[in-house]
Amino acid sequence: MKQKSLEQDRIEIIGKLFLKKKTFTENLEKIKIELEKFREYNTKRNEDEYNRNVANINNELANLTNELREINEMEVDLDDPPTEYPEIDKYKADIKPFEELWKVVKEQMQKT
């Protein structure tokens, strides 16, 4: 009886993990698309919007980093190796130049 309960719990955790990883991957893809849009940003007057978008992406990346920890903990609990998502670090590096650019533009716009 106890064995069935443990197996049922394991199946439930596997299902939750699957959904969590699916959502996680979808959110990573959304960030990738948002980052690609930054290449088209070229209007100084929109620096506030661009800076908000940078902040939103940084917040999402922080949330995804926390979520990845949860995913990895679940995987370890299931005796699976932790999944790595190098895209998170790549996207953090990719956003930095845009963050710096639009921060400088905003500072310059405030001076004029």
- The helix/strand class is mainly alpha
The averaged pLDDT comes out at 93
Order of helices and strands: HHH
Computed Rg: 20 Å
Distance between the termini: 75 Å
The share of residues in helices is over 70%
Main sheet attributes: strand count, strand direction, barrel closure: none
How many structural domains in the coordinates?
1
Shape: rod-shaped
Task: Note the total helix count.
Answer: 3
The count of β-strands is: 0
Poorly predicted ranges: none
Q: How much of the residues is beta strand, in percent?
A: under 5%
Structure description:
This protein is mostly helical. The protein has one domain. The chain has three helices and no strands.
List the helices and strands and how they pair.
Elements: H1 2-37, H2 47-77, H3 87-111
Attribute tags:
single chain; about 110 residues; mainly alpha; about 80% helix; rod-shaped
Brief overview, please?
With 112 residues, the chain is mostly helical. Helices cover 82% and strands 0% of the residues. It has helices at residues 2-37, 47-77, 87-111.
